[in-house]
Design brief:
mainly alpha
Length: about 240
């Protein structure tokens, strides 16, 4: 990886971690399309997986009392079953196809949040299994297991004060499994580990700043702008 690519990757990781620490999710949705454009899918996927594991571990250590394990464990189990399918997809699917799938995912998720359709309130916790399984497939292939889980949590009306922490309680074990799968599949290359090492100080700084922003910022307007940007990024990946 060239120095300018390394610098761009570190900046992208820092920005995406700041968003994750502030809102509880969104890092892969920002990092994956941008890193894919900079370094390709085979570098972007394991790199984002490593950073996601680091971020989830750090946030859980500081907020473990707020995690609702009862709300997360079904999602975790189902995701662990879906992750191997995602890893297989990453190994076998053409990179151009992966970019288009990721673009469609970004467009769909952004439109969902921008339009806010009136969806029903899920009262049956067993529906966590299909949401979690799809999240596992997306996580293993593209590190984008967040959207199905965020949609599920929204439909289940998770209390806002526990939403961020519960998401990290879900992301920690699934991120560990995803990162391990990337390592065993041979995706931890020199470029991936070098970029991760350079990013670590900025990741911890972004987690600290994001935690403070989470408690202070009126986030509604910022989130709307964020999803407009994600919509544009999704469209760029479709070109």
């Amino acid at each position: 990886m060239h120095p300018e690519q390394l610098l761009a990757a570190v900046l992208i990781i820092t920005l995406s971690t700041l968003v994750r620490s502030t809102f509880g999710f969104g890092d892969a949705l920002i990092a994956m399309p941008l890193l894919t454009l900079v370094a390709g899918v085979t570098v972007a996927t394991p790199l984002v997986g490593l950073v996601a594991l680091t971020t989830a571990t750090t946030i859980v250590i500081g907020n473990w009392r707020l995690i609702d394990i009862k709300a997360a464990w079904r999602l975790i189990v189902a995701s662990l079953m879906g992750i191997p399918f995602g890893l297989y997809l990453l190994q076998t699917a053409p990179e151009s196809l992966v970019k288009r799938i990721l673009g469609l995912l970004l467009i769909g998720f952004s439109l969902y949040h921008l339009t806010r359709p009136q969806l029903p309130h899920l009262t049956e916790s067993k529906l966590a299994y299909p949401f979690g399984f799809v999240a596992g497939i997306l996580g293993g292939a593209y590190n984008t297991n967040g959207p199905p889980v965020v949609v599920y949590g929204t439909l289940r009306r998770w209390p806002p004060t526990h939403f961020r922490a519960t998401l990290q309680g879900y992301f920690l074990p699934t991120s560990l499994f995803i990162a391990s799968g990337h390592a065993l599949s041979g995706f931890w290359t020199g470029d991936v580990l070098r970029t991760y090492g350079w990013s670590i100080p900025f990741v911890f700084g972004a987690i600290f700043v994001g935690g403070r922003l989470n408690r202070r910022l009126p986030v509604a307007q910022f989130i709307r702008i964020l999803y407009v940007v994600l919509l544009i990024l999704g469209a760029l990946l479709m070109v």
